[in-house]
Write a structure and sequence with these properties.
about 180 residues; 4-stranded mixed β-sheet; 4 strands; disordered N terminus
């Protein structure tokens, strides 16, 4: 479904009198849950009344929000809802939709920047060094509590084990190089 809105434009959803929703691009009946997922997947859609052709998109999106609010943890605080209701009929009502839309766009941009900053900091070399020290401490603890768990330096591994160890060492060296490159 994620490609529908991107490659074919706006997906038309027909709403019938029996309250069923029909996705014209997939030729299948869908639910409000499907529409909610389409929103999350950035699929552009329009819901129209099958009989009159009236645009019902706003009403359906509002219905999805109401169902989400009723089903799980509420995202819209009661005080916000009261303030929103008080704006109906107010002289500022015409300005509010643009303001809310711009605020949400700004919030999402900041969310993307924060996610990128966190990912960049996790990929930095100091954390890789910390993970390596943690592994060394884990091996030391395993050697102390489980005799023979960690192979002594003077013990000779079997030929097959030696090959496996060489492969693992090479993989670890490659991973360390990549981590070093990411931290630059």
């Amino acid at each position: 479904m994620a490609n529908e809105g991107k490659s074919g434009g706006t997906v038309i959803i027909k709403k019938y009198a029996n309250r069923r929703l029909y996705n014209t691009s997939t030729s299948s009946y869908i639910t409000l849950d499907h529409l909610a997922q389409m929103v999350k997947d950035n699929v552009d859609f329009q819901v129209i009344d099958a009989k009159t052709g009236a645009d019902l998109t706003h009403a359906i999106l509002t219905q999805i929000i109401m169902e989400e609010e009723a089903a799980g943890e509420q995202m819209l605080p009661t005080n916000f809802l009261r303030q929103l209701i008080s704006m109906y009929g107010n002289s500022m009502q015409a300005l509010l939709p643009g303001y809310l839309e711009a605020s949400m766009d700004h919030f999402r941009e900041n969310q993307v920047k924060l996610r990128k900053a966190i990912e960049d900091s996790i990929g930095a070399n100091p954390l890789a060094q910390l993970a390596q020290r943690n592994m060394e401490m884990f091996k030391a603890a395993a050697a102390a509590f489980v005799p023979g768990a960690v192979q002594r330096d003077d013990a000779k591994p079997e030929p097959a084990e030696a090959d496996d160890l060489d492969v693992l060492r090479k993989q670890m060296a490659e991973m360390q190089k990549k981590l070093d490159q990411l931290s630059k």
